[in-house]
């Protein structure tokens, strides 16, 4: 696919197709309906993400404990890369969670997701300004997971190798660009992603506790791990 | 492990159905 880098070709090939939202119809409250629809989508995205992670070169070689730790700390970052990428150029600055689930600022506020909206628009604007390529996006997503700073690490050397493999892939990818600062700029966008994901997790936990929104088991388990 | 059993099951590629 790209420059002969096998890792990135593999990431491009295994990138999951976007999911569609299943409209919730269990309540007449439209903001609650939106929230439940979003939570159902996130739960299914998580399932797909776990399957995707297993296919990242090097991931399956990690101990089961490290695989779990990386996913538990990095899942929201990996999911938000996709949302921010899809939301680029969206009319009315919507967040595009799925092709059929686009929420503008007012809808997010009504749903209790004002904080998530603000954080994700900031991230989206950053990615938009960077003009990321699809290859860079899949690499960024894998790096976010590999770099999730899970603690404690079971086999530090294996995790380091996993990270190094992805870093090399990024360097390979950027080697042909004229812009020598490109790889560094992509790495420097990771803190904002971490910060955005933290705010997203806090927002969902607040809604779960405050509005007593029932969450799917997998989503709840992953939020709890935070 | 007990607390994170769904993730654990999914990573182990368990053939038993996972209750999501």
Q: What structural keywords apply?
A:
heterodimer; A: 226 residues; mainly alpha; two-stranded antiparallel sheet; 10 helices; 2 strands; 66% helix; globular; B: mainly alpha; 35% helix
Write the layout of secondary structure elements.
The complex is a heterodimer of chains A (226) and B (20).
Chain A: H1 6-14, H2 30-54, H3 64-86, E1 95-98, E2 101-103, H4 105-111, H5 114-130, H6 134-146, H7 156-175, H8 182-188, H9 190-210, H10 217-224
Antiparallel strand pairs in A: 1-2
Helix pairs in contact in A: 1-6, 2-3, 3-5, 3-6, 3-9, 4-5, 5-9, 6-7
Chain B: H1 5-11
How would you portray this structure in words?
The complex is a heterodimer of chains A (226) and B (20). Chain A is mainly alpha-helical. Chain A has helices at residues 6-14, 30-54, 64-86, 105-111, 114-130, 134-146, 156-175, 182-188, 190-210, 217-224, and strands at 95-98, 101-103. Chain A is built from ten helices and two strands; from the N terminus they run αααββααααααα. Helix content of chain B is 35%, strand content 0%. Chain B contains one helix and no strands. The interface between A and B is medium-sized, with 17 and 11 residues.
Summary of the model, kept short:
The complex is a heterodimer of chains A (226) and B (20). Chain A is mostly helical. Chain A contains 10 helices and 2 strands; from the N terminus they run αααββααααααα.
